[in-house]
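We emphasize that the prediction below concerns an isolated chain of 323 residues; any contacts that depend on oligomerization or on bound cofactors are therefore not represented. The input was used exactly as deposited, without trimming of termini.
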Amino acid sequence: MSLLRLGHGARKTERPALRAVDLLFIAFHLTLSAVILIFPSRVPFLPFLLAYNAALILVIPFIAGKASEARGGIYPALHLFYPALFIVPTYKQIYLLVPAVRPGLYDHVLIAADRFIFGGDPSAALHRIANPVLTEFLQVSYASFYFLPLLLILSMARKGRREAMEYVIFCVVYGFFLSYLGYFILPAVGPRFSLHDFTAIDTDLPGLFLTGPIRDFVNWGASASSGDPGAVLVVQRDVFPSGHTLVTLVTLYSAFRLRTRLRFVLFPVGVLLIVSTVYLRYHYGVDVVGGFVFFLFTMGTGRLIYNGRQKRRGLPPFRWDRS
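Result of the prediction step, given as a token string:
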């Protein structure tokens, strides 16, 4: 089935244009705007951030309205998939807001939690089994993070499972946003800075062919460079909870509940991805635990929020067994 036709849907009903994920995006960016206005003297690029949030808050209803009127074309597909376009800009906005609101680092708290729970530092323990082949394998797995939920969503689109697709999109976005809020609780930079020598990681934890380029890309995305001894001062403070763990678990859980054959591909890659977050020194062990707890909260409260919106739209609640 064409993604453009799927975006419009096979059935035409009278219902509000805004979906649960639309309201989620609007509410989250209103919240970020409120944070900016509460700390105006601390937030860099304040006019730009407020303008961006205002534009996003206005453009989402516009896209939704156009999509509800269209019988094809770009707007229905854009209405379904715009979250993939705006997640990264939102993530980078968090990069500016977290140190402005919470200027301290709390790596020592997470290290203490690791040592209490695991009896040591998991990243150091995993280094005992490190080798270039394993590092290469896990670095590639780590890089699959954004592709796993996208693959599941596209699979639902190809099969015409509109309700399932919309619900998975909502849960994935909700998981991302909850992890972003978590960064305000315990801002931290992770074991690659606090427990290991970040500038020596290429020699201390070498891979084969793809590890270096992928590692450089991940560092660039977090506003750090492996050759910069001052990278710890500018890197994104996005450690707790592990968003990689949270969103990957949302994806795997959804794939199994929807009984898609893709789950047999997603599961091993997802498990390796979660292991890689600690092995590659991006996260503490407790970050993974936090990601699991946030995952449970995401799926529990997410269903209530989503079905509450469904009820107000005059639509039946989402159920895994009929989607």
